[in-house]
Write a structure and sequence with these properties.
With 270 residues, the chain is mainly alpha-helical. Helices cover 73% and strands 2% of the residues. The protein has one domain. The radius of gyration is 25 Å and the shape is globular.
Length: 270
C-alpha cells in the first residue's frame, strides 16, 4: 500500500510539473513597485512607459543634434518618419494647417510607435499601450484637437452643423441628430482607444502563448510532445516580426485618423 501511495504521489507531482499555464489578463496588471495604493502607483508597465518616452527623447535629440546633408542612420530614420507624418498632414490638412498640427501628429505617431515596440524588447516584453489609460489619453488628445480645430475655424457654427447637417429636412433631425452626436462626439474617441488597445493586448497574449508553450514543450514536457516546441517557436518568431508591422501600422493609423478628424472639423461645411 505504501509503494502504491508513493507511486501515486510521484505521478501527481509529475503531472503538476507538466501542467501548462497560458497567458491571462493579469499580465497587464503587475504588482505595484512604488506608491502602492495611491493615485500615483507605479508598476512595471508604468516604468516601461517612462523608458519608452526617455528613449524617444534621447533618440530624437541625438538624431537631430547635428543634422548633415548625408544623414546618418538615426537621422535618416527620424527624417523618414517625419516625412511620413508631414506628407499625411499636408495631404489632409493643406500646407498651412498641416504645419500648424504637424507637432501634434508627429508626437502621436512616434509616441505610439515607441510604446508599441516595447512589447518586443527583452526584459520589457509589454507594450506601453496595452492598458487602457495610455490609448485613452492619446484618443482624448486627438478628440480635443478635433474640437479645438472646429471651434476655432467655425466658432459660431461648428456644433450646430455637426449635429444638424445643412440640407436635411427638419423632421429628419429627430433621427439624424442623435446619430451624428454618437458617431462624431462619442464613437471617435472610443474607437481610437479600443482599436489601439485591443491590437496590443491580443498581440501580447499571442506572443506569450507561443513562447510559454515553447518553454513547456522543450523543458517541462518530458515526452514526444516536445517536438511541438519547434512549431510554437517558429510561430513565435514569425509573429514577432508581424507584431513589428502591427506596431508601425497602429501608430500610422492613429496619426492618420487624428489628421482626418481635424480635417473634417476644418471643412467648410461646418
Amino acid at each position: 500500500m505504501s509503494l502504491t501511495a508513493a507511486a501515486n504521489t510521484v505521478a501527481a507531482g509529475s503531472s503538476k510539473a507538466a501542467e501548462f499555464h497560458g497567458p491571462s489578463i493579469n499580465e497587464f496588471f503587475p504588482d505595484a513597485i512604488f506608491f502602492a495604493g495611491t493615485p500615483f502607483e507605479i508598476d512595471r508597465l508604468v516604468i516601461i512607459r517612462f523608458i519608452a518616452v526617455a528613449v524617444l527623447l534621447v533618440f530624437a535629440f541625438v538624431g537631430t543634434r547635428s543634422l548633415k546633408l548625408v544623414p546618418s542612420r538615426g537621422q535618416a530614420f527620424i527624417e523618414y518618419g517625419f516625412d511620413v507624418v508631414r506628407r499625411n498632414a499636408f495631404d489632409n490638412l493643406g500646407e498651412k494647417d498641416g504645419k500648424r498640427f504637424l507637432p501634434l501628429l508627429s508626437t502621436i505617431f512616434f509616441g505610439v510607435l515607441f510604446m508599441n515596440l516595447t512589447g518586443l524588447i527583452p526584459f520589457l516584453n509589454l507594450q506601453g499601450t496595452s492598458r487602457i489609460a495610455m490609448p485613452m489619453l492619446l484618443a482624448l488628445i486627438a478628440y480635443f484637437a478635433f474640437i479645438y480645430a472646429g471651434v476655432r475655424k467655425h466658432p459660431g457654427t461648428f456644433f450646430r452643423n455637426a449635429l444638424f447637417p445643412p440640407g436635411v429636412p427638419w423632421y429628419l433631425y429627430i433621427i439624424v441628430t442623435p446619430i451624428e452626436f454618437v458617431s462624431t462626439f462619442v464613437l471617435r474617441p472610443v474607437t481610437l482607444t479600443l482599436r489601439l488597445l485591443m491590437n496590443m493586448v491580443v498581440g501580447h497574449l499571442l506572443l506569450v502563448l507561443f513562447f510559454s508553450a515553447t518553454w513547456f514543450f522543450f523543458v517541462e514536457s518530458h515526452s514526444l510532445f516536445s517536438v511541438f516546441g519547434v512549431g510554437t517557436l517558429a510561430f513565435g518568431i514569425a509573429f514577432s516580426f508581424f507584431e513589428i508591422l502591427v506596431a508601425l501600422l497602429q501608430a500610422y493609423v492613429f496619426m492618420l485618423l487624428t489628421a482626418v478628424y481635424i480635417q473634417l472639423a476644418l471643412a467648410d461645411e461646418h
